[in-house]
Amino acid sequence: MSKINSFVVVLALLLVAVMPFSVMAQEELTIQGSSTVLPIAQKAAEVYMEQNSDVNISVRGGGSGNGIAALIDGAVDIADASRFVKQAEVQAAVENGIYPVPHRVAMDGIAVVVNPANSVEELSLEDIKSIYTGEATNWSEFGGPDMEIVVVSRDSSSGTFEVFNEITLGKERLTKAALLQASNGAVAGVVSDTEGAIGYVGLGYLSDSLKAVKVNGVLPSNATVASGEFPIARPLFMFTDGWPEGLTARFINFILSAEGQALVKEQGFVPLH
Amino acid sequence: MENKLTKRKAVEKIVFSILGLLMLSSIAVLGVIIFFIFKRGLGVISWEFLTSMPKNGMTEGGILPAIVGSFYLVSGAILVATPLGVFAAIYMTEYAKKGKLIRIIRIGVNNLAGVPSVVFGLFGLSIFVKYLNFGVSILSGALTLAIVILPTIIRASEEALMSVPDEYRSSSLALGATKWQTIKNVVLPAALPGILTGCILGVGRVAGETAPIIFTAATFFSMRLPNSVFSEVMALPYNIYALVATGTFPQKQIPIAYGTAVVLLVLVLLINLVAIFMRIKFSKKNTN
Amino acid sequence: MLNWKTKEKIIKNILLFFAFSSILFLTGIIIVLFKEGAPIFSKVGILEFLFTSDWYPTYDPPGYGIFNLLSGSIVVTIGAMVIAVPFGVASAIHIAYILPKKFKNIVKPTIEMLAGVPSVIYGLFGMKILGPFLREVFGLPTGLTALNAMIMLGIMALPTIVSLAEDAITAVPQNFRDASLALGANRLETMFRVILPTASSGIVTAVILGMGRAIGETMTVLMVAGGASLFPSNILKPVRPMTATIAAEMGEAPVGSEHYQALFGIAIILFLITLIFNIFADFAQQRFKKKVSGE
């Protein structure tokens, strides 16, 4: 019997341990969505939480579709997205009594990148299309070495994928041979490791281990994205349910402030002002 | 004749050596995996890594919220699954007569054990997160994990209860105790070490489960510890996956993933070792 | 105060309820899967869903053919078994039959520890260590391939197979062995002609359960299989097994959308496959029990 009792005591102790140790009242904010916007949201959340100790902000990635779906379900306060909300999503939202309101937080260009060992310097939007549909399979077709093209793409949950798709592929389908990666970082990793690879990443992810190609003769940079010259560019959004109030409003205002936009620039994106 | 005998002996020796070699390589695999994870991750581990919050978008700082999150999820799952599993096992060993009913229950347990972990995740998402509206939270995650380990706990408890000698039961009943009194005061205490071993194995299994919590509990980045059962949490296994597969700054985040992997691996292997020792000790005691 | 007999009865019924919990959850899972996933079968057609290979769930018009995903899962599982069965069964025989008892108590738990290593750690190993190694060796664009997934899943299925197959071999009654040896067979002949045939259905159970573990494994294949929805005609190319598809895409699919239903549809197929495996394993187990009890 005493054994049983001690078993019960152990269980009870565990139960107490499971009880939250901080009962302090905290304001909660949950953010979910685009992995492109993720660094901005994370950094902003971090700085904001340092300034306001009574606030708890939880940030998750998973893709734009993911974030907007969560907003539609009422599961998050802010949905990060690297694309605009789709008609079908607005409909689903309204059916759930949710009114997605977009807030533009930054500009981003999608750089098309190849391995630094690749001699190809420039591709047209048409070239990119034929590579990503699987029509063209060798770099020699574009003045490069005789080498198989390894197509690297983001997976379909990513807003970067959808924007890239819309601008370069139109209605055509991505080749099934494409390696689908879950993040900008993963795409950058594969392209920098693989000689024949081509991929696309946000401007913030350009580094020495990747080579950005000119698209239609324009090299991606903050200036060419801000001026609209670079063809594969898009605004980044945070969506809220209705016009934001309370903590959500304060947080969005923080990102749009000069301090917040400085963080945007620090993370490698193009600030709004 | 002599020749044939030595040939037979030689063949036997060769076959046995090949078998031995295959077995040794199976063990070596475990060594190789542990070695590489430790080699790459051990350098990251420090007191600060274990006890501080992540910084700069999970590129610096520690993994305290993931450790705490995993602790909550695992404790919650065990708290729910243990009584459920032990009571189920008591019925199966002490009350049910051999026959159709027990056969059906056992098929249920076996099949539940075989359900792929991602399917548990979908179930948790649909029932706990959406239908019961617990949201992505510790509660949803712990309940999902509890179902994942239920079969482990039922089987271990069943085995422990069955290993209690029948004389215990008959002497208690002979002294006038009711069946439930016998179970409560005689059988359960005798089976307790075995049941505990099962729970410990359950802890080890559940601490490493990732797929069931992706949609039900886990979050990538949090700078505060959870403050209610409805908070979403970071968790050790999900942290590894998120950093490696979806991390945005691989150069800085992959070392943290290795560090997290070392923490998780040490935890899980220790838990397994404890369970093994308990099992050995317990089985010795019973045979004596 | 309750009469003790009524009290006993109440307790018995409460326990019976708990005993049914597994079946309750299993039924719950089936209901949830079909409720959420069945609509896709009527929209797309079950044959089209299973046997066409355009998986483009977010396009307009969408494609919901899982043939490449299904074959990816099957090929990877078969490959894993090709690796795990020889190693697993050989280890089991060695442990049960050749190894001295005192080593057995060390070796078996050590291999069983492989089962304790979390799948995400196997994934990390496969992705960051085995992947680059395979890329070098075969000169591939990427090491995240079907082969990588086969190796990792093979390792993961190993402890299941070793542990259960060893139990089966040990369960062969001692007098079977003694009789064979007394008739002049040596230990090797006894092993092949008496022990293994007797233990065979137990070993089959072990292999089927190992297969179930491999086909349902999620995190490892998500991390190491590469994720391209190609037909697995070359094991040095990436594949996208069913479990990886569900885990990678579930988060993005709005509840109730076609994509969401299609992912639950995949889960139904996956669940049915593992269910069949489990029923087979159970069947083989029953046969084995009869055999060693000497009927």
Automatic annotation (TrEMBL), chain A:
Gene Ontology CC: plasma membrane
Keyword annotations of the record: Cell membrane, Lipoprotein, Membrane, Palmitate, Phosphate transport, Signal, Transport
Stored Gene3D superfamilies: Periplasmic binding protein-like II
A Pfam family this chain is assigned to: PBP_like_2
Domain PBP residue range list: 26-259
InterPro entries referenced in this protein's UniProt entry, alphabetically: PBP_domain, Phos-bd, Phosphate_ABC_transporter
Example of a GO MF term: phosphate ion binding
Position of the signal peptide: 1-25
Glycoprotein found in the keyword field: no
Family in the record: Belongs to the PstS family.
NCBIfam families reported in the protein's UniProt record: ptsS_2
Oligomer and partners: The complex is composed of two ATP-binding proteins (PstB), two transmembrane proteins (PstC and PstA) and a solute-binding protein (PstS).
Purpose: Part of the ABC transporter complex PstSACB involved in phosphate import.
Protein name as annotated: Phosphate-binding protein
UniProtKB/TrEMBL annotation, chain B:
Transmembrane segments: 14-38, 63-92, 104-128, 134-154, 256-278
SUPFAM superfamilies reported in the protein's UniProt record: MetI-like (SSF161098)
Membrane topology, record value: Multi-pass membrane protein
Domain called ABC transmembrane type-1: residue spans: 67-275
Family per similarity comment: Belongs to the binding-protein-dependent transport system permease family. CysTW subfamily.
Organism superkingdom: Bacteria
Keywords from the UniProt entry: Cell membrane, Membrane, Transmembrane, Transmembrane helix, Transport
Chief location of this protein within or outside the cell: membrane
PANTHER family given in the database record: PHOSPHATE TRANSPORT SYSTEM PERMEASE PROTEIN PSTA-RELATED
Keyword match Transmembrane helix: yes
Record CDD domains: TM_PBP2 (cd06261)
Tagged with keyword Transmembrane helix: yes
InterPro entries: MetI-like, MetI-like_sf, Phosphate_PstA
Full protein name: Phosphate transport system permease protein PstA
GO MF: phosphate transmembrane transporter activity
Automatic annotation (TrEMBL), chain C:
GO biological process assignments: phosphate ion transport
Cross-referenced Gene3D superfamilies: MetI-like (1.10.3720.10)
Main subcellular location of this protein, as a coarse class: membrane
Residues annotated as signal peptide: none
Keyword terms, alphabetized: Cell membrane, Membrane, Phosphate transport, Transmembrane, Transmembrane helix, Transport
Top-level taxon of the source organism: Bacteria
Recorded coiled-coil stretches: none
Record bears the keyword 4Fe-4S: no
Location of this chain's protein in the cell: Cell membrane
Protein name from the UniProt record: Phosphate transport system permease protein
Protein source organism: Halanaerobium kushneri
Species lineage: Bacteria, Bacillati, Bacillota, Clostridia, Halanaerobiales
